[in-house]
Design a protein that fits this description.
Layout lengths: L2 E6 L13 E2 L2 E2 L7 E4 L20 E2 L8 E13 L2 E9 L3 E3 L22 E7 L9 E6 L4 E11 L3 E11 L4 E10 L12 E6 L6 E6 L12 E6 L11 E6 L7 E4 L7 E6 L8 E9 L2 E10 L7 E5 L10 E9 L11 E9 L3 E3 L9 E5 L3 E7 L6 E11 L4 E9 L10 E9 L3 E13 L4 E7 L6 E5 L8 E4 L3 E3 L6 E2 L1 E7 L13 E8 H7 L3 E3 L5 E2 L7 E7 L2 E8 L1
Parallel strand pairs: 18-24, 38-42
Antiparallel strand pairs: 1-26, 2-3, 3-4, 4-16, 5-10, 6-7, 7-8, 8-9, 9-14, 10-11, 11-12, 12-13, 13-16, 14-15, 17-19, 19-22, 20-21, 20-23, 23-24, 25-37, 26-33, 27-32, 27-34, 28-31, 28-33, 28-37, 29-30, 29-32, 33-36, 34-35, 39-40, 39-41, 41-42
The structure holds calcium ion (3 copies).
Length: about 575
């Protein structure tokens, strides 16, 4: 489905694209040395189309919809790709796989390579496909030795129908990737040549190196057709060296925005990864937290050295204990001298300091920077990890407009679906949207959240209505989700939808939220929640500090500066 811009008040920056060299039948090399050759040419080394049916011996992949991602699934062996090896993959319903990320590529599709997530993408037919229509299926097969096959079968285009059957073959014997096309009928919505309609190609772990076979239907001699095979293959030898440290995550694995309650302590953490092909010596990693333009926290962590593929945990020794509510940004930046890919050296995390009762929100707007709508039934949601448990959700807010007035479902959803996606519906009501403004929905009975995250979603059954207010400027929470018959992280992770949650402390533990009081009522937390927040040192009943990595269920004492509270950790 397409996300359409109704009103934008700023110019959006264009994604970085690279010129591709391609001629009839052959293409490349990229800077590493990968090339492609297809079965339309008689040049030496051209692949021969040879469809492999895996519907009998393969495993069916379920859960694919219009625009979503499922996985990960095992390749079954270590597959060499660029200068590293991969062993699992996610499947995007829009005709691609990624070796390391469940981010969504949806219309408009970029030319590959593209540094935006997901990366490590193999795209045999990245188009607006729709697993929610017709009778499509997807299978994968591995012999756990040297061959892994992923087949998309009979998948129609969104809205325009047609049918596409194609497969990816990972072949360890020659380190090559094969795309094969059994049937190709129909065209993407608005046609092959429309902007963002389609992409075929490959990209590497940072989305900076790769090959484009087709982008927006060009070159037209590379339009996929029945009985086509394309082979992507590495060079026999290469002199290419990537000296590259990437800032990999901040605070949590997806660098998702965090809330900190006044009085709580935050220990900045992150990860850096050697995404290059050579070892590095020592380098510093900097952390800065800003409120507006003022730096309110700064610390440095020294990494002694890394090997290719290595991920290093960064734990800054200073803590951050904010005393003023509002928006903060945390930036972690690696500073390896001679880094060949400076674009991935830093990540900005949105951080909001609040005090209950509060509005959990990822923007501060009274009017939107842009308004977006879906050209089919659809909606948006925001995910929130409350800073305290239990938290009660007393209501929700949305900025939207519709003409004529449109009734929209309001949902509170648990995050117990696959990969932390929306699962169980905890509360549901409706709201009528008309005039462009904020709408507040107060819940008759609060929804209690005792662990993990939750979603506030607004879903419309009416195409083109309503238009949803959007914050298109950084920082972004990376917690905006879209609904196009299924939920997925929003296709543009740089945007935040104007949806908020109204929250207060859950029943019975109000005193926990009062700073400087000692609570005699224990806080019950799941171990994973405690580890996510990493708030402070835990002590066991003997008064000895306990390492976060070794936590088991039981009673602990949490020391946050001078304040101590009892914590019961559960699974
Ligand atoms: Ca990418
Ligand atoms: Ca789609
Ligand atoms: Ca870098």
């Amino acid at each position: 489905m397409l996300s359409l811009l109704l009103v934008a008040l700023i110019n959006l920056s264009q994604p970085i694209t690279f010129p591709a060299q391609s001629f009839f039948g052959v293409g490349g090399p990229d800077v590493y040395g990968y090339r492609w050759i297809d079965s339309d040419t008689t040049a030496p080394g051209a692949p021969t189309y040879n469809w492999i049916d895996i519907t009998q011996n393969g495993i069916r992949i379920t859960g694919l919809a219009d625009d979503n991602v499922v996985g990960p699934f095992p390749i079954g062996f270590e597959f060499p790709y660029y200068w590293y090896r991969v062993n699992s993959f996610y499947v995007g319903s829009n005709g691609y796989i990624s070796f390391n990320d469940n981010g969504l590529y949806a219309h408009p599709f970029p030319r590959l390579p593209d540094p935006n997530l997901p990366n490590d993408v193999l795209a045999p037919m990245m188009c607006d496909l729709d697993f929610g229509a017709g009778n499509p299926s997807c299978y994968y097969y591995t012999n756990n030795r040297d061959t892994c096959i992923i087949s998309f079968i009979n998948v129609p285009f969104w809205n325009t129908g047609g049918s596409n059957t194609f497969q990816i073959i990972l072949s360890r014997a020659d380190s090559a990737i094969y795309f094969q096309y059994q049937t190709q009928n129909g065209a993407p919505y608005n046609g092959w040549q429309s902007a963002g309609s389609s992409a075929i190609g490959i990209e590497n772990i940072v989305g900076r190196i790769g090959l484009s076979y087709l982008a927006a239907g060009q070159p037209n001699y590379n339009l996929p057709h029945a009985n086509l095979a394309i082979k992507f293959y590495p060079p026999a030898t290469t002199n290419y060296q990537a000296r590259d440290i990437a800032c990999w995550s901040v605070m949590n694995d997806k660098s998702e925005g965090v809330f900190i309650h006044i009085g709580d302590t935050c220990f900045p953490v992150g990860k850096v990864k050697n995404t290059g092909s050579v070892p590095t010596g020592a380098f510093p990693v900097f952390c800065r937290i800003r409120s507006g333009t003022s730096v309110v926290y700064a610390d440095t962590f020294q990494v002694s050295g890394t090997n290719p593929g290595e991920v290093v945990d960064i734990r800054f020794s200073r803590n951050f204990r904010p005393t003023t509510q509002g928006l903060y940004t945390m930036v972690i930046r690696s500073a390896l001298s001679g880094d060949s890919v400076p674009g991935n050296d830093s990540i900005v995390l949105e951080m909001r300091v609040i005090q209950y009762p509060a509005e959990l929100k990822w923007e501060d707007l009274s009017t939107p920077r842009a308004l977006y709508y879906w050209n089919g039934p659809g909606g948006y949601g925001n995910k929130f990890y409350p800073p305290r448990y239990p938290t009660k959700i007393t209501g929700a807010k949305i900025f939207a407009s519709a003409s004529p007035a449109t009734s929209v479902s309001v949902l509170v959803l648990d995050d117990n679906g696959p990969l932390g996606s929306p699962g169980e519906t905890l509360f549901q009501t409706t709201v009528s949207i008309s005039t462009q403004q904020w709408y507040t929905v107060n819940f008759p009975t609060p929804v209690n959240i005792t662990s993990g995250g939750f979603f506030i979603g607004f879903i419309s059954a009416t195409a083109n209505q309503p238009s949803f207010g959007m914050d298109t400027l950084p920082p972004s929470s990376r917690l905006c989700w879209e609904y196009t018959t299924s939920w997925s992280p929003y296709r543009n992770p740089k945007f935040d939808v104007m949806i908020r949650a109204l929250v207060d402390v859950g029943l019975g533990v109000k005193e926990i939220a009062q700073p400087k009081e000692i609570s005699f009522l224990p806080t019950v937390m799941k171990i994973k929640d405690f580890c996510r927040w990493n708030t402070a040192t835990l002590y066991n009943v003997c008064g000895l500090p306990v390492k976060k990595e070794r936590l088991t269920t039981g009673l602990y004492f949490l020391k946050e500066n001078a304040r101590i509270r009892k914590v019961i950790l559960v699974e």
